Amino acid sequence: MNWEPPEQLGVGCWQVTPQARRYVNQVLDSGRLSYGPVSREFETRFAAAHGRRHGVLSNSGTSALHVALAALAEKHGWEPGDEVIVPAVTFVASANTILQAGLRPVFADVDPLTYNLDPAAADAAVTGRTRAVMPVHLCGLPADMAAVMKIAAARGLRVVEDACETGFVSAGGQPVGSHGDVACFSTYVAHLIVTGVGGLSLTDDPELATVMRSLCNHGRDPVYLSIDDDETASLDEVVSRRFWFTRHGFSYRVTEMEAALGLAALETRDAMLAARQVNAAALSAGLAGLAAAGVLQLPRIPPGAEHAFMMYPLVVTADGVRDDLMLYLEKRGIETRMLTPLISQPVYAGRADVLAGDFPVARYLNGHAFYIGCHQGLGEREISYMCGTIRSYFGDGGSS
Fold first, then answer.
1. Using an 8 Å Cβ cutoff, are 186 and 202 in contact?
2. How far apart are CA 22 and CA 47, in angstroms?
C-alpha cells in the first residue's frame, strides 16, 4: 500500500476526553491538590476492578513496587541481602526496586512463548534466603499465577505481582493483581490507564496498606497521613503526632490532578481494552503469513487467559535481523522498542552477584524480540499500514 502515516505511529497514546477535562476542572475549582477525596475514590475503584480491598496511590509504578517490598520487609523481618526472584525479561524497575529495598534480585528465565516468568525456573532459583517472588505480567498478558502461587505456598514465600504493564484482564477466572500479597500497577504515559505519572499498590491486608501509605509519605505516623485526618483523629493525637515519622520513608506522593485523570480513564477502560484487542487480532491476521513461514513469532495467549495488549510483542526468528527491522520500521513512522531487556543492561554488566545462572530464553529474546503499538489510538488504516510495512521488509511488497 502507498499510504504514508501522517505522523509516527507510537507504542502508546493518551486521549483527552470531555470527562477528563471536567474532573480536572473540578479539582482546580476545589482548591485542593494534596491527597484527598478524588485520590481516595480512584484508589477504591481501581482496587475493586482488580478484586482488591485496598489501594495505595503513589507517583509511579516503580514507587508502588518499592513501598510494597519495603512494607513486606518490615512486616516479615527480612534482612538486607535477602532474595527476591524476578524474571530475566522485564523493565529495569522490577529489579531496581529490589536493590533499592536492600534486597537481592535473583533472576529466573522466562517462558519462550509468553515471555513471562517460567515457574519451573523460579522454583529452581529458590534458596534459603529467598523471601519473595515477583512475577511480571509482561505486555498485558497475565503470568501463570496458579503455578507461582503453588510454589510460593510450598516454599513459604511472599508474592508481589508486578502488573505495571497489565490490568483489567483475568487468567483462570481470577483478575490480574488479585493473587499475591501486593500487586503493583503503573499509570505512566503509554500505559493502559494514563495519568501522566502515577502508580498503585493493591492489597487485601489493611496493615500492609497502612504501612505502604506511610512509606509514600516520608514514613509519617499513620495517625496523620493526609490533612483530612484533622477531622477524624483526636485533636490531641493530631497536635502531638502530626509530624512524627515512625519509619524511613519516601516522598512518593501524587496529586488530585492525576487521580482525576485516572477516574476519567477508568470510565473508558472497557472500550480501551476492546480496541487494543481488536487491533492485536488485526495485527496477528495481517502477519499470519510471516508466522506460518517461521519468520516471526506472534503473541500467544494461553487457554483461559485474557490479554490487555499494552503493546504487541514480536520475535524475529532469524539471527541478526531484529535491529535492522526495527530501524526499517522507525524510518517509516512506526515506533518500536526492544522487549524489555534486563540482564543485558549496562547497569548490571559485571554484576556477578545478581547475574549468577544461565538464562537462554532471555538471552535469545534480547537479540530477537521487540514490540510495536496496538493501542486504541490506532485504527484499521494504521494497522493495515503497519502490517504491510513489516511484510514489505521480508519481501512481499506490503500488499494488503
1. no
2. 23
**CA separation for the pair 244, 230 (Å, rounded):** 15
What is the per-residue pLDDT for 231? 67
**How far apart, in Å, are the Cα atoms of 363 and each of 112, 178, 227, 344, 357?**
11, 30, 49, 8, 12
Q: Give the helix/strand (H/E) hosting 267.
A: none
Split at pLDDT 50, 70, 90, the class of 317 is very high
pLDDT tens-place string over residues 182-224 = 999 999 999 999 999 999 999 999 999 999 999 999 999 888 7
The DSSP annotation for 171-220 comes to ETTEETTSSSSEEEEE-BTTSSS--BSBEEEEES-HHHHHHHHHHHBTTB
| Cell representation of residue 255 | 496529586
Which pTM does this prediction carry?
Answer: 0.95
Tell me how many degrees the CA angle 147-148-152 measures, rounded to the nearest 5: 120
Tell whether the torsion through CA atoms of 37, 39, 40 and 46 is positive or negative.
Answer: positive
For 363, other C-beta atoms within 10 Å of its C-beta total 16
Residue in 341, 344, 333 with CA at minimum distance from that of residue 313: 341
Q: Which residues pair with 58 in a beta bridge?
A: 199
Q: Which residues contact 124 (CB under 8 A, 6 or more apart)?
A: 108
Put the strands of the sheet holding 130-133 in their side by side order: 54-58, 199-203, 182-186, 158-162, 130-133, 83-87, 104-108
**C-alpha grid cell for residue 199?**
502508580
Kindly report which listed range (85-99, 135-149, 344-358) carries the lowest average pLDDT score: 344-358
Cβ(254)–Cβ(197) below 8 Å: yes
For residue 400, the model assigns a pLDDT of: 38
Encode pLDDT of 10-59 as tens digits: 999 998 999 999 999 999 999 999 999 999 999 999 999 999 999 999 99
Contact 125, 109 (CB under 8 A): no
The beta strands (E) that lie in 41-120 are given as 54-58, 83-87, 104-108
